[in-house]
Amino acid sequence: MSQPNGQSNGSIRVEIYDQSYNLRGSDPEYIQKLADFVDAKMRAVAEHTSTVDSLRVAVLAALNITDELLCERMSKETIAVDRTAVLQHALESALDEVLQERRVG
Predict the structure, then answer these.
(1) How many domains does one find in the chain?
(2) Which burial class, exposed, middle or buried, applies to 55 when counting CB atoms under 10 A from its CB (0-12, 13-18, 19+)?
(3) Contact present, 27 and 3 (Cβ < 8 Å)
(4) Residue 3 has pLDDT above 70, yes or no
(5) In sequence order, what DSSP letters do the residues of 39-101 get, joined into one string?
(6) Which tens digits make up the pLDDT trace of 27-51?
(7) pLDDT at 1
(8) N or C terminus of the chain: which is more exposed, having fewer CB within 10 Å?
(9) Is residue 1 part of a domain?
(10) How do beta strands 7-8 and 19-24 pair?
């Protein structure tokens, strides 16, 4: 798991898959969370594959993370489309009622 190893000049030292990196950013805690997330994904991928090549593990982890991101985006888009369809149906029904009342009345 990633461990912060110190900060200097706005950078934070993190470990990802047994490699140290000095990263910069305005929020060291957030950077550490990102590093921990990537480290965990790489370790999970390594457990399920037979490769020991860290570059290959990194690419597979990146694909896994990208898949999660795109699935989340598609899910949000589907929810937005569903909400729009419900709203559109409700508005059409309300308009039909008003028009029906005017025809009768």
Answers:
(1) 1
(2) exposed
(3) no
(4) no
(5) HHHHHHHHHHSS---HHHHHHHHHHHHHHHHHHHHHHHHHHHHHHHHHHHHHHHHHHHHHHHH
(6) 999 999 999 999 999 999 999 998 8
(7) 52
(8) C
(9) no
(10) unpaired
CA dihedral 35, 25, 7, 23 (to 10 degrees): 50
CB 45 within 8 A of CB 57: yes
Averaged pLDDT of the chain:
86
C-alpha–C-alpha distance, residues 25 and 12, integer Å: 8
pLDDT by residue (tens digit) across 6-16? 555 679 999 99
Q: Is residue 62 part of a domain?
A: yes
Q: pTM of the full predicted structure?
A: 0.66
Q: In 3-state terms, what secondary structure has residue 37?
A: helix
Please tell me the distance from the alpha carbon of residue 52 to that of residue 46, in angstroms, as a whole number.
Answer: 7
Q: Which domain holds residue 34?
A: 7-104
Higher pLDDT, 80 or 67: 67
Question: In this structure, what token pair is assigned to residue 56?
Answer: 């290959």
